[in-house]
Structure of AAA family ATPase:
Amino acid sequence: MPVIHLDDLHWEPGRCGVSRDRALRDADVQAAAHADTWIMEGVYGQLVNLVFSRITALVWIDLPEAECIANIMQRGTQYGESQEQFQDLLDWVAGYRTRAKNWNSFESHSKLFAAFPGRRWQLSSRNEIAAFVEHVVEASVAAKDASGGSAGECPWPK
């Protein structure tokens, strides 16, 4: 199943902090969502909204900002970003729950999540994430065994 990283579609390749042309980015996101199966990951609420009608299951990983910041600090700078850009990223993550009227905020993500009519999960801890992944893997193996080798539809937790 293809995995689409929204960061890869939002930013210019090899140009840290430089956004792609919005029309091109939006077209690429919509094209990716027209595949039969896919997983999209990223914090871009506006881009999720573009493909909202094609989503069959929604998983919101909603970890505390302190945990996200610790992860970013541990991985360090990426893609040639400067220390100033790195600090801007940390500040941006720190403001996630207080940012208002912004597609990439807790407020907007909450609204998208609440409006989603299909199967959805909000995972707010590493333990919840691990349990979710474990269930999906176990159910996928069981479905593959039962079908004689083809996993078929993704067996999301109920």
